[in-house]
Every structure is written in C-alpha cells, then in structure tokens.
Design brief:
Layout (H helix, E strand, L loop, with lengths): L10 E5 L5 E5 L8 E4 L2 E4 L1 H7 L8 E4 L4 E5 L7 E2 L5 E6 L2 E6 L10 E2 L27 H18 L2
Parallel strand pairs: 7-10
Antiparallel strand pairs: 1-2, 3-9, 4-6, 5-6, 8-9
Bound molecules: zinc ion.
Length: 159
C-alpha cells in the first residue's frame, strides 16, 4: 500500500467561514499534487449568460481561448476563493484541474484565486480574511478595467 499522501486525498464538503460551504482535505497534500478536476458540462458563454441571467450564484469557470465555460458540477465547485490561496487552477488538454501550490495540511480548506472577469456586477467582495486580502474576487486586470470604465463614465457625466 502506498502511503496515503501518494493517493488521491479524501475531500470533505462542510460549512466554511469564508462562504457557505467549502472543500476540505482530510489528508495532507504535497505541493504540486493535482488534487481534483473542475468537472462539468462545457457550454458557450452565450448559453451560460442565457441560462444564468437571473441567478445570483453560478459555478461557471471560463477556460480556453474561445470563451467557453465549464458549468461546474461536482466537488471542485465548492472550493472558495482566497487571496491567500493554497491551490491554483490549470488547463490541460481542454480540462481544468486544481493543483496544490504549497504543502497543505490535513483539515485545511482548499482555496484558489477566482480571478473573476467579464462581470456586469460591481460586487464580488471578498471575505477570505487573509492579511493580504484584496477585498475583491475580481482579477487585478478586471479591477483596473472597471476603474477605467468608471473614470470614463464620470468624464462623460461631467460634460
Ligand atoms: Zn480576500
């Protein structure tokens, strides 16, 4: 039998102080280990917009360069955002995986940076509680883009 750390870690979904429910590991995970796949149907961005127009909560994951999204279904959709992540996502062969970016102890919550983008909402406040919390789940590029858009709006309003 290989040691437990060499196999797939056992994961548990339970309530989280960050947001509703979170995904915890019951086993230590070494840095660099691929933990799980972000599973779900592949749909177009247009279909996603249509399907979730009226829903406040979605588990959509943009990937690839054609603007497709994964309509999250499975364990990975329970991973919360944190500004101090212990995991990151990676694309490989049209699939998206969650990988540990540092050694993770048993009973830690698995988190990664959502780097949200392309949102009509101004509000993606972060409550991760990390000392370096950026206060938002948007990517830094998206924060800059929104600031530029706001500045343009203000400039127009003052004409
Ligand atoms: Zn944060």
């Amino acid at each position: 039998m290989p040691p437990r750390s060499a196999t797939t870690p056992r994961l548990l979904i339970r309530s989280s102080s960050i947001h509703a429910a979170g995904c915890y590991t019951l086993d230590p995970i070494p840095r660099g280990r691929r933990v799980l796949e972000y599973g779900g149907a592949r749909i177009s961005k247009d279909l996603a917009d249509e399907r979730y127009a009226d829903r406040p909560v979605t588990y959509l994951f943009g990937f690839g360069d054609k603007g497709d999204v994964i309509d999250g279904f499975g364990t990975a959709m329970f991973l919360n955002h944190s500004c101090a992540p212990n995991c990151q996502t990676e694309e490989s062969g049209g699939r998206v995986y969650i990988r540990a970016i540092r050694d993770i102890a048993a009973n830690e919550e698995l988190v990664y940076e959502y780097n949200l983008y392309d949102s009509d909402e101004d509000n993606a406040d972060c409550y991760c509680g990390a000392p370096q919390c950026r206060g938002t789940m948007f990517s830094e590029e998206e924060v800059k883009r929104q600031a530029r858009r706001k500045a343009r709006k203000l400039a127009r309003a003052s004409l």
